[in-house]
Amino acid sequence: MASAEAAAEQLFLPLYKLMKSIVRSLILATFTFFVFLSTPGVVFAGLGISPSQMVVPNLSKGSHVERTFVLSRSDPVEDLYFKVTMEGATKDWITLDKGMEFTMPKGQQRFSIMVIANIPKDTANGEYKGGIRLESSSKSPGKVSGSGASVSLSALIQTDFTITGKQVLEYEISSIRIQTIEDGSPLEVSLTIINTGNVEARPTKVHVEVFDKLNKKLLESQDVTEMGSVEPFETGDIAILVPTKLGIDQYWTKISAYRDEALLKEESLVFEIVEVGSLQKNGDLKELLCNQKAAIGETVKITGVFENTGQSNYSAKLVAEIYKNKKMVKLAESDLATVNKGKTENLSAYFTPEASGRYTVKARVAYSGGKTPEKESKISVGNTGLSALTLAAAVILLVSTSAIITAFIYFRKKKTTKKDHGK
Fold first, then answer.
1. What domains are defined for the chain?
2. pTM summary value
C-alpha cells in the first residue's frame, strides 16, 4: 500500500507543480492587464487604411504606378507619428509621397498618402507579393523611450503585382460631358477614362453631332481623332476642343466614342452658348512639384496643382519651359484636361534631361481665356553612373587600406614576439 501511495505521489507531484505554475502566471497576467487599463495616458483607438490592397495586373517592365490610400482613426486627440516598413518581393520598388516617417496631425481623422511603385526594367515576368506596414505611436520616434504611455497602432497595405512582357490595351470610358461655352469659343467635350492596361489609352475616334434645341435638326457633325491620352493604370480626363460656327442658344449634342469600329460609349447632352463675359473663369496654380535631383536619361514628372476658382467648368493644361544656362532647352506640355469649378486637378508634363547640369523649370497653366502667373522649380541633373564608379573606387580604397594596416600590425607583432623569445 505504501509503495502504491509513493508511486501515485511521484506521478501527480510534477502535474501539481505544473498546474500551480500556470495558475500563478494567469493571476499575474490578469493583474498586469488591469494595471495597464488603469494607467493614465493609454488610449485605445482604431486605425484603418482604405483600400487595404494594391493589386495591379498586367504591369510592364519599367511601369510607374501611383495609388492614393486614406488612413482613418476614430479618436484624433493627438499627433500620430508613423514609421513605414516595406516587406516582401515588392519592397524595393515602392516609395511614399510622405516619406518613410510622417505625422498625422492632431484633430485629423482622415489622412491621404500616395503609394508610388516603379517596376525595374530588368524584372522577370511573374507575380510579386509584399506589403507596406505603417506602424504608429503617439510619440515621435526620438521620444518613444521616455516616461508615460504611448498609443501603438498599425495598418498594412498588401501589394500584389503581376509583371508581363505583353502590351495590354484595356480601358473603359466612364463618362462623357460637354461644357457651357461663350460665343466664339470651341465646344469643350471631356471623357473620363479608366485605364487598366499597361499602355496609354484613348479612343481612336470621337464623333460629335449638334442638333437644335428641339433635338430634331442636325446642325453640325465632326470627327475628332487627335486628342490626349491617359497614363497606364490611371483614371483621368481627356479634353477635346471642337470648332463650331454656332451662335448664342441652347443645343443638343450626341457624342460617340469609338475604339476602331467598336462603339465604347454614347451620350446625348444639352449645352448652351452664352454671351462673351458671362462665364467667370479664374484659376490658381497652387504648387509646382518635381524631383529636385535626377539622372541623365531619367524621365522627370512635372506636376502643377491647379485649382479652378471660377464659376464655370473649363479645359486647362500645364505649360512648362525648361531652361539651362538661361537658354530654353525644352517646352513640355500636359494633355488638355477638364477642371470643374471649385475643383483641384494635377496636370503633369514630362522632361528627360540629356546632359548633366542645373535646370530651371518655369511653368504656368493655360486655361480657357486666361493663364496663371509662373512658378519656378530647380532640377539638378548628375550622372549616376559616375557616382556609382566613384563610390566603388572609395570602397576599394578603404578595403585596400584596411588590408595594409592589418598586415602591418600582424608583422610588427610577429617581429616583437621573436625579439622577446630571443631575450
1. 47-163 (2.60.40.10), 171-274 (2.60.40.10), 283-382 (2.60.40.10)
2. 0.61
